[in-house]
Design a protein that fits this description.
The protein is α+β, with helices and mostly antiparallel strands. The chain is about 25% helix and about 25% strand. Strand 2 and strand 3 form a beta hairpin. The protein is rod-shaped, with a radius of gyration of 62 Å. About 20% of the residues are buried.
Length: about 250
């Protein structure tokens, strides 16, 4: 070894190439991760909100369909219905009167009520007065409301007059032998004038029906009567012979 070599200090080896330090990417990655986390959270919130709105809408639809939660209708004030006029109901007929309206028929089966009752009608007390007779019973000198015929004397006249009361019909027959069926034809085809009075004489015969309306109201039968004038006295007293038949209903 030479002295130069012995005295030279040990030379350090040549410098090795320096390694470059790696770049720090942590802050950028963390930011990306944080942003992703925030977006995920926002998505969760939005999803929950959407679900809540959908549930609320479904509840409202169900409530509308079932009527739950609907506002009650405002009650309208009660308006009283207009009063109807009272209806008059007729009393029910008794067993002796048919509920249907009877009609005069020649072929009907008439049943006898009474036969050949003798009546005597006194003259009226004054001129223009009348004596009323109920042929249902028969009775003389009754109230006009229940009478079928009236007898009077015309002032200045000497012949008694007979008139029919309201609702009563009649006709002149040829003889006392007339039957109720024959009276039907006479009354239908040649009736006496309603309300008029006519002179009567011995031997006259009349077919007379009682008032159908009055009979129905009184609960008695409607009747066909054959009234024969058997005498007229000088004092204008009138004698009658009366037979009555029930008109079938």
């Amino acid at each position: 070894m030479s002295d130069e070599q012995a005295t030279d200090p040990i030379q350090p080896p040549p410098d090795a190439p320096k390694k470059s330090k790696p770049r720090r990417r942590f802050p950028f990655a963390a930011a990306v991760a944080l942003l992703a986390l925030l977006l995920s959270g926002a998505a969760v919130v939005l999803s929950w909100r959407a679900h809540s709105l959908a549930s609320s809408a479904a509840d409202r639809i169900e409530a509308l369909e079932t009527g739950v939660g609907a506002q009650p209708a405002t009650p309208t004030p009660d308006v009283p219905a207009p009063e109807e006029p009272p209806v008059s109901i007729p009393a029910e007929p008794t067993a002796t009167v048919s509920a249907t309206t009877p009609v005069l028929r020649r072929e009907a089966q008439y049943t006898g009520q009474y036969i050949e009752k003798a009546l005597k009608i006194p003259p009226a007390a004054r001129c223009g007065d009348a004596i009323f007779v109920d042929l249902d019973e028969p009775l003389v000198q009754v109230a006009s409301a229940v009478a079928e015929v009236r007898f009077s004397v015309d002032c200045g006249g000497t012949v008694p007059l007979m008139g029919l009361e309201g609702g009563v019909t009649g006709s002149v027959a040829s003889s006392e032998a007339v039957e109720p069926g024959g009276c039907v034809d006479l009354i239908n085809y040649s009736p006496l004038a309603a309300g008029a009075s006519q002179p009567i004489r011995q031997g006259q015969v009349y077919c007379v029906t009682t008032s159908r309306t009055a009979a129905y109201a009184a609960g008695i039968t409607w009747k066909m009567l054959i009234v024969a004038v058997t005498g007229v006295a000088e004092d204008e007293t009138v004698a009658l012979r009366v037979s009555a038949w029930n008109i079938p209903g």
